[in-house]
């Protein structure tokens, strides 16, 4: 059956599946690492036990998410070298150095201080432990810096030349390849999205425990819910502004992507409408059953009601992305962003009325919105990547010419294997994280090393330390 399917399509589906799963974990740990650093800093400054309890509560979840992010990320490199070896050969001289710097700087920084962050509070002193927390937070952001630089170069390539002998892209300016035109906007937009995704998970967990009927001290739940709602209130409007600027940058450098996002099959010389909904029809090149607001599309894209906007009728069919996917993923992202803004404003209203923790409708809304930030991250990523098609390097290297010469059966078999293994391994990890979140943070929440009853490293552990619950093994 797989032999009848296009091998390139299967390779694209495999990469899309694995990177979607992977992207959820960095999207969560980038924000959670910074949150842990803030909690630890607030505890050192105020000595309020609630901050230490929340740190000890969330650091256990961070450790699991970080580990799954590392494991799922390794797969991406292998896929580039197997399914997409032609792309790796052509673009390697440009994308190789930033990816190496990501490992040498960001990942080594995270990995080097992660153990101190998890287990070192009573072993290295509070100042060095705080430095380790900050180093891990900086490392996660530095990792995003390098990876997004590579992805942004693929979207808006600059600072390169093409070797006439090999056809390879070679850098003529390292800094122009790193700081390409879309990179600053993409970096700010993605990091802010990661912070919001984490905040809504934390807010949802806090709201869940505030709604619970248990009689335990809910100081931790109140604190995490309050901090998350502050993040929603302040950062969502900033994110909307960043998104608008990113959209204008995309209009300048990738206008076809904007056409697909907006559903503009036809050009509008006297002002484009904003299509709220519709059914994209690539065959007839029209948006069926469209619901539109006249002129508003031009106002958003060019800040003038009557500004002309080009449509996909100016682009050959072979150079157009799959409009339906881009059109709907963009609306999922924007729709969730709008709901996040409303929830943040609602929480601010209830905070001013001193009812932040008492309005059960608000708390249930926060629980329902807890995965919204991560879903919006995935929707935004789909918009960006599918909107770049049919190119891997925008305007220069087509996806069909980037894939390795593999048969469909081989690629399809590995796709099926990835789906089975991912659902088993990462599904189990997700279930375990949800179980940890389902338990409310306790007063005097135990630290990670206080609950360890087994080996904390691979060598040098005596059997007694591993089986005696009264013995805490030393890292």
Automatic annotation (TrEMBL):
GO terms for cellular component: cytochrome complex; plasma membrane. It is found in: Cell inner membrane; Cell membrane. Pfam families: Cyt_bd_oxida_I (PF01654). One of its GO terms (molecular function) is heme binding. The lineage of its organism: Bacteria, Pseudomonadati, Pseudomonadota, Alphaproteobacteria, Sphingomonadales. The chain crosses the membrane at residues 23-45, 57-80, 100-119, 131-148, 192-212, 224-242, 325-349, 361-382, 411-434. It comes from Sphingomonas gei. Keywords: Cell membrane, Electron transport, Heme, Iron, Membrane, Metal-binding, Transmembrane, Transmembrane helix, Transport. This is Cytochrome ubiquinol oxidase subunit I. It is a multi-pass membrane protein. Belongs to the cytochrome ubiquinol oxidase subunit 1 family. The keyword Transport applies. GO terms for biological process: aerobic electron transport chain. Its main location: membrane. InterPro entries: Cyt-d_ubiquinol_oxidase_su_1.
